Structures are given as structure tokens and as C-alpha cells.
Amino acid sequence: MLKKCLAMAVLCLPLTVSAKGSHKLDTTPEVAVGAVTVQIEDNYYHNTNSFDSNGNLLPVDTDYINATIGYSFDFGLTVQAATYNCPIFGGGAQNFECDTYINIIQRFNLTEHFGVNIGSQNGTVFGVLPQWHHVDFGLLSYQVTNDIEIHSGSYFVNSYLATIPVDVIDVTTGFVVKFNEKFSWEMDYFGGHNNLSGAQLNWFYKSYYLGVIIPESGSGNQYAGVVGMRITSW
């Protein structure tokens, strides 16, 4: 009976769950120690035949701005305040807009090459009925060389942020590759079929980057173009 009810609940989800951009979560932020780092990112979505819960056709083009400010302490703690998906034009390409979070990440160095990141993201969307959004994650990182780092672990997201009737535990992985002082490449991937599922790849030149958001199949998320910059106080 419980399985039947759960299946019915999934079938009856509103259409706003489909054709949306995946939620942002950076498990290994590049934040300079002892400095304030500000990151501004623009995401562009091109929708095709996407509808809201009332059956209304969503705007074809949507552009969002994302802003993050963070500080990293010398004992491995990084604290960020972030606001995601504030519409510049269009709208409806994300399940939540102008959602605001506090991100906390603690880094533990186990050996010269291995480390552990444990983090949490908490926040809500202002101006709508309160829905507390919560994510926890833990991952093991391996420093292959001075310029290549890979990481993998698991994450938990509550049902409100996952936009499905149940809480979710799934896998996350990614890497950071630094080709030289100017060029680098970063990727984070979240498994499953929920509002976090998918990958984001960014190609950096100094403080500027271009990227793409790639949805996980069956997640209901969609592709988006990325332009951003990362500024450090020193």
C-alpha cells in the first residue's frame, strides 16, 4: 500500500518539477585562505515547450544572476552566503528563484594527498510559503599532482529542495585541473533524478570562466550556458 501511494505521489507531481535547471552546490569552492572571495555567475536557459503547473507556456529565454561571497579560514573552514537564480529576464527555468543560502564546508587534510570535505547548505526562498532547504555532503579528495584533484562522496537533500516527495541520498563526484597559472577546468556532478542531479563544467581564464550545466537523464533538469567571474580581495 505504501509503495502504491508513493508511486501515485510521484505521478501527481506538478509540471514545475520538469524542464528546470539543476540546483547549485559547490562541494570544493576555490576560496583563497584569509581573503574574501566574491563570485558572480550568469546562467542562460533556452526553453522549448515548457509549461508551468497551470499549463501556461514558460518564456522561451531566461537569464539568471547568481552571487556568492565567502571567506576561508586557515584551519580549513569555508563560509559562504549565496543567492541563486535572480531573474534578469524571462523566468520559470528554475524550480526556485532568488533562493538564499548559507554554505559551510570544513576541510580535513588526512595525508599529503588525501583530504575530506564535509559540508552543509541551508536556506529558503523568500516571498513564498516557507520551505526549508537542506543539503549535507561528505567526500574524499585525492591530490593526484599539484595541479590535479579528484573527489567523490555522497550527499543528502531534503524533499523540499529535491522537489520530489522523499528525501534523497546519492553520489557526487568531480575534479579540478590547473593547466597553468591562467587556465583551469572544474567539474561537479550529482547523481540521481532530483533537483540537484546533473553536472556543471567551468573553464577558467584567470578570474573569468565559461561553462555549461548538463542535466542528468530523467532528472527533469535542462541545459544552460554559464558566464562568470571570481574576485578575491587580495
Quick structural overview:
By secondary structure, this protein is mainly β.
Please write out the topology.
Elements: H1 2-11, E1 36-46, E2 61-72, E3 77-89, E4 99-109, E5 114-125, E6 133-145, E7 148-157, H2 159-162, E8 168-178, E9 183-190, E10 198-205, E11 208-215, E12 224-232
What key attributes describe this structure?
Porin; 234 residues; single chain; mainly beta; 2 helices; disordered N terminus; 12-stranded antiparallel β-barrel; 12 strands; globular
Characterise this structure:
The structure is a single chain. By secondary structure, this protein is mainly β. The chain has one domain (2-232): Porin, CATH 2.40.160. It is built from 2 helices and 12 strands; from the N terminus they run αβββββββαβββββ. Strands 1-2-3-4-5-6-7-8-9-10-11-12 form a 12-stranded antiparallel β-barrel. A hairpin with a 7-residue loop joins strand 5 and strand 6. The termini are far apart. Residues 1-19 have low confidence and may be disordered.
